[in-house]
Amino acid sequence: xxxxxxxxxxxxxxxxxxxxxxxxxxxxxxDAGSKIRGDAYSRSSxxxxxxxxxxxxxxxxxxxxxxxxxxxxxxxxARAHVxxxxxxxxxxxxxxxxxxxxxxxxxxxxxxxxxxEKQVQVEAKQQAALAELVKGDKIDVDAVVKACEDAEEAxxxxxxxxxxxVEAAAGAS
Length: 173
Hints:
Blueprint: H1 2-28, H2 34-37, H3 42-68, H4 75-102, H5 107-133, H6 141-172
Helix pairs in contact: 3-4, 3-6, 4-5, 5-6
C-alpha cells in the first residue's frame, strides 16, 4: 500500500509545483496592452512609494518606542532604515522616468507625474536629512520623527496623485 501512495504523493506534489510556477509566471509577465493602458510601470512605482512610506513609518515608530523605553536609537538600525529609504527613492524615480516615456503624448498624465515627482523630491530631501541625522552615534529622536513625518506626508500626496493619474489613464483607454 505504501508503494501506491508514494507515486500519488509525487504526482500531487508535482502538479502543485507546476501550477504554482505557472501562476507565478503569469503574475510577472505583463500583457501586450499594459503600456497602452499605462500600467506597465505604474504598479511598480506605487509599490515602491508605499514601501517607502512603510519603511519611514517603521523607523519613526522604532525611534519613538526607543524614546519611550529610555533606550537609544541603534545607529546601525537607523542607517539601515535610511539606506532602504534611499533605495526606494531611487527606484521610484526610475519608474517615474519610465512612466513619463509611456505617457509622452498625454499632457494630463505628464502634469500628474510632475506633481508626483515633486513629492518624491520632498521625500528625497527628507531622506537626505535623515542620512545626516544618523551619521553619528547619538541620534536626535525628535528630529528623526519630524523628518519621517514630513517624508510620509510627501509620500502620501505622491501616492494619491499617482493613483488618481493611473485611474484616469485606465478610464481613458
